[in-house]
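new request in #modeling-help
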Amino acid sequence: MMQAASTMPAQAAAVALDVKNVARHFGGLVALRDVSFTVREGEVMGLIGPNGAGKSTLFEIISGNMPPTKGSVSYFGEDCTNAPAYMRRRSGMCRTFQKVRLFESMTVEQNIRVAASQCLPEGRNAHDEVASILSQFRLEAQAQRRPSELTLADRKRVEIGRAIAGHCRLLMLDESMSGLTHDEANHLITEILALNRTRGITVIVVEHVLSVLAAMVNRLVVLHNATVIADGTPTQVANDPVVIEAYLGTKQKALK
Amino acid sequence: MNTSAPSMTASQDNGGQTRALLFALLPVAAVAILPLLPFVNDYIIAATVRALIFISLGQAWNVVAGIGGLLSLGHGVFLGLGCYTTGILFNHYGIPPWIGVWAGAGMAAIFALVMGSMTLRMRGVFFALATVAMSLAMVQLTRHFVDLTGGSDGLALKFNGNSWWAMQARTPMPFLYGGLVLVIVFYAITRWILGSKLGLEMQAVRDDETAAAAAGVSVFRTKLTGLMLSAVMTAVAGTLYMQFYMAIDPDAAFGLSQAIQLQLPALLGGLGTAWGPIVGGALMIFLSEVTNLGATKLEINGLDILVYGIMLLFVVLRAPKGIVGFFMDRRRGR
Ligand SMILES: Nc1ncnc2c1ncn2[C@@H]1O[C@H](COP(=O)(O)OP(=O)(O)OP(=O)(O)O)[C@@H](O)[C@H]1O
Ligand SMILES: [Mg+2]
């Protein structure tokens, strides 16, 4: 199932992800209300919003960890609302977690190998795939270390490496830059953009602050109080009066 | 920490592996030549057989609980299936245990498949509880089918004297070698699992189910495969148990103290390691023999269970990764 349609006309990029009227309630709490947006193949999209806006919940639903209360999710034209998380991952829908979740008893190499051996296309072998990921993220020296011996920045890079190993078409990153130094964050942004450019991976990045994303994304969706309040280019969004009013306070503050 | 670590381990690898092999062959040789030693009598050989049996049962439990992280408290069910199946086939139908062992393994696999399908989607605590419930149900079942199982009195194998065909012997010596082979085979299986794709998946699921699914691992299928593998191993060890002890009853198979004895080797020795159940099982039987001697002298019943409790407490508090884990951490300098 869920094999992506590769027969799209070359000029119009395929719709990688289509989120339709998604709602999620936790008891009386409404975490998401009628959220809709689409992401086209090859895009780097930012998803921002204050604490508790529902960003992580949205990732949980898209990746299949949690069913939506209402609405549907399509991935490359196929409805995957009821597909289990591991099937979505095998069809190339990849993600990281806000709080890094690695297999702590395993080495860095094994962490990546687990994912690589699940969803390799025909003819590729897991060993080569792991080696290529390790070298891409310059983790060779850490390959035999346990995650607990790594810096936060390296832990995040291992998690991204594990997320894309094997087969990746859509990568969802939940606050990958938070907790990193300015240099580490810039470095990571470069690596993520390289994935987008060289492997053609579509990227959705969740962050709190616009400033981190402005230079990185070509599109921004703003989530506020469980719903989408703006969707457009970074410049459009930064100048949107609703966004300035509701979330950013002032435009100056936002772009700082 | 140690920046030169990678190059050092690389150059030491060969010597380290040779040393590990020697280290592994030593206990094997010790058990193999045991009957030749002057001070060794049948009592010591029988105690060693008991150790080998509980090591192999511990190795089986280690697969599901240690590598897979599934707390099965009811593994006595699979021990019982191995014992009762071989015993019933032999007593009632004259089928030798050489065939009965595979029937028992098949029963355990089917039972694990059914039980796993019903419980493995639940959260860990509920799975653990379900395994306890399953043990209790098995006690009732054995009592119900009293003609086949002997009910509460248990099932005693018809004795054939020394017989290869019936896998029976008047002395414990043949079981020493049978047990040794089983432990070596289970050790090899454990090592194979740890290095295989399945083993990596099981460890990933143990560490973090959500992250495992996000890495493309089918959590349910992985758990089910691990449970079935462990169940089959337990039932095979169960056949050896049956041939050595010559009898089984509901309490010996499904009772609480048996459940503890199935778990202690891996817990003491080190969960999820290939050596853990071997070290832990040997220690458990050694201590239980010593305390049993003491208990008969002092006329205290159930002293071994008390000692098990103290051992478990010690491990949980001082060496939560077990004896093997404790030394592995020290060698790594942590
Ligand atoms: N499993 C859950 N059970 C109950 N409430 C939840 C659960 N997960 C999230 N919530 C609630 O849903 C709302 C949205 O949470 P979510 O984590 O999606 O926000 P977020 O935008 O990712 O915030 P942050 O920037 O802090 O990560 C919050 O009010 C949160 O408390
Ligand atoms: Mg969040």
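bot summary: Chain A touches chain B through 31 residues (CB under 8 Å).
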